[in-house]
Amino acid sequence: MKNILYSFLVLAFLSCHSKSNETATSEENKDNTIVSLTDAQAKNTAIKIGKLEQKTLSSLLKVTGKIDVPPQNMVSISMPLGGYLKSTKLLPGLHISKGEVIATMEDQQYVQLQQDYLITKSRLYYAEKEFERQKELNKNQASSDKVFQMADAEYQNLRITLGGLGEKLKLININPATLSEKNISKSVALYAPINGFVSKVNVNIGKYVNPSDVLFELINPSDIHLNLKVFEKDITKLSIGQKLVAYTNNQPEKKHPCEILLISKDLSTEEHAADVHCHFENYDNSLLPGMYMNAEIELKNNNAFAINQEAIVNYEGKDYIFVTIGKNQFKMIEVKTNVAENGYVEIVNANELEGASIVTKGAYTLLMKLKNKADE
């Protein structure tokens, strides 16, 4: 009787133990994120374990912008006194040199201005002599103070008038010092104030222009720079002197090294972006003002938590890693990755993996076993 009772208890225990194992195995099979290896499999797989490490990784900030010209390198040419355009050879894109004649203007008012200057200059000569004479007479009490004061006022008035007319002549590029009755001209020349090229021609020969009209626009390409738009969230990552490369949509393979010169302190209302001005290290003449460009700026992230690239597996478009949850037992966990450099990948959700033992070698073997289990 005792033997029968003992046998029944053993069978009941084995039955419960078997059911427990079946339940555990069933639960494991239901969880498609857990994979188990036998000791032999673990040895053959040569799995290595590691943890997240702090690394200095570089990332690329991609922005857009366009080629710009600082105000001091862009010149608008106008005629301060107006007039008719007599001649010009300028065409957009034409190179010009400083001091070169770029146009000839013509108007009768130029003649009148020169005439007024020479007549005033002649009257001033007489007024100066009269002033000296009255001064001497007044000194000897041979002339009244009133006459002397009138001669003084006339002399001063003519000096002022002559000075004003002389400045007007300079506005139309006529040198008052060399002007005489023998070289009065109805035509005056316009000269290029800078070295560069012509960007716009707004007039044609024979057209009358007002003092406010812009005839030509000239650009000095010596200081052409790249103006980038950088959003608020990225602006604090940049600094003066930082290096970058720029390229056009038409020639993305042709890189143009640049350096950040100035970072605006004002954000645009619409885009919430700031202007970042960059200098071309070697300016290419094929780059024209107004041309759109792309730029890549290398950023350093000193606080990045990263793992060996071999630890990352990609499955159905998502990135995963395996962490140990027991002896020869591993769980697949989804991770968000960022930049990769020197064999390491930044893990964005690193706070979820603090202290975890991560499979750094053999992760794809575990993924294959997990997929095969899911297909069974």
UniProtKB/TrEMBL annotation:
GO terms for molecular function: transmembrane transporter activity. InterPro entries: Beta-barrel_RND_2, MFP_Cation_Efflux, RND_pump_MFP. GO terms for biological process: copper ion export; plasma membrane copper ion transport. GO terms for cellular component: cell envelope; membrane. Keywords: Transport. The keyword Calcium does not apply. The keyword Zinc does not apply. Residues 226-298 form the CusB-like beta-barrel domain. Pfam families: Beta-barrel_RND_2. Belongs to the membrane fusion protein (MFP) (TC 8.A.1) family. NCBIfam families: RND_mfp (TIGR01730). This is Cobalt-zinc-cadmium efflux system membrane fusion protein.
